[in-house]
Amino acid sequence: MYDVHYHRPATLDDALNLLAGADDGKILSGGQTLLPTMKQHLAAPTDLVDVRRIPGMRGIKVEGGHLVIGAATTHAEVAGSAEVRQDIPSLASLASGIGDPAVRHMGTIGGSIANHDPAADYPSAVLALNGIVVTNRRQIAADDFFTGLFSTALEEGEIITAVRFAPPKRGAYAKFPNPASRYAMVGVYVADTASGVRVAVTGAGENGVFRHGALEAALGRSFTPAAVEGVATPAAGLLSDIHGDAAYRAHLVGVMAKRAVAAALG
């Protein structure tokens, strides 16, 4: 076992100072990825900075026509929120299908998108809904936030404080889950937004979540399940593993997209 120092700062400035002063400090939010990684000795941070009790980091509110979700808000809180169910029911539905009850009561939206696991659900919501990631320094558009596998636009000393969403006209998320982990082998979020139809795919891309331009164009012309049938997804650039190869995932993208559109219309 190795030594690690646990901190529970009272303010965001305290958290930033603790991270700056640590040899290898990590932010602890839900810990659903970080703690298992530490248990397997794949990571050995010197300091854990728990941001869950910092005022303003947790909670859901409607502000200026946007739904604002604090970064330390759990999946269970998103799933059960009256505001989310009213304004973006597809986001509440997505949150309700993450992992199991234990994961949903510990994992957080900020931790999920900061980690950018290629099979995580939330990145597809942020990208499809054209969300805005709010940090202690700036606001980052969804299209600029996810930069690669387990990689984002976050810089050293930058902490996600909230995510802002404009409610879409309609939308839905459908995923084919791994039966053990409930991670998405393929998940497709379809949103008809003020700026047009946006389609984000998770669980399939070698570089993590991505927008599907061909599906967006087809659904922009006709927002129907039938419009999805004529759109092929190339296998190049998709993941292959013991659960399914790239060709299988390419097929699943179409299947999940069709289900998502049907759910959005329903």
Can you walk me through this structure?
The protein is an alpha+beta fold. The protein has 3 domains: 46 residues, Uridine Diphospho-n-acetylenolpyruvylglucosamine Reductase, domain 2, CATH 3.30.43.10; 106 residues, Uridine Diphospho-n-acetylenolpyruvylglucosamine Reductase, domain 3, CATH 3.30.465.10; 96 residues, 2-Layer Sandwich (Enolase-like, domain 1). 35% of the residues lie in helices and 24% in strands. The strands form 4 sheets. Strands 4-5-10-6-7 form a 5-stranded antiparallel beta sheet. Strand 6 and strand 7 form a beta hairpin. The longest helix is centred in the C-terminal third of the chain and has 20 residues. It is globular. The model has no long low-confidence stretch (mean pLDDT 95).
In brief:
The chain is an alpha+beta fold and 266 residues long.
Radius of gyration: 18 Å
Mean pLDDT, nearest integer? 95
CATH architectural name of the largest domain? 2-Layer Sandwich
Total domain units: 3
The total strand number stands at: 14
Strand content: 15-25%
**Biggest sheet architecture:** 5 strands, antiparallel
Distance between the terminal alpha carbons, to the nearest Å? Answer: 52 Å
Structural class computed from helices and strand pairing:
alpha+beta
Class of the largest domain, according to the CATH hierarchy?
Answer: Alpha Beta
Helical percentage: 25-40%
Helix run count: 12
Q: Which spans of ≥5 residues are poorly predicted at pLDDT below 50? A: none
Element-level helix/strand string: EHEHEEEHHHHHHEEHEEEEEEEHHH
CATH topology of the largest domain: Uridine Diphospho-n-acetylenolpyruvylglucosamine Reductase, domain 3
Biggest sheet: strands side by side, in what order?
A: 4-5-10-6-7
Q: How would you sum up the global shape? A: globular
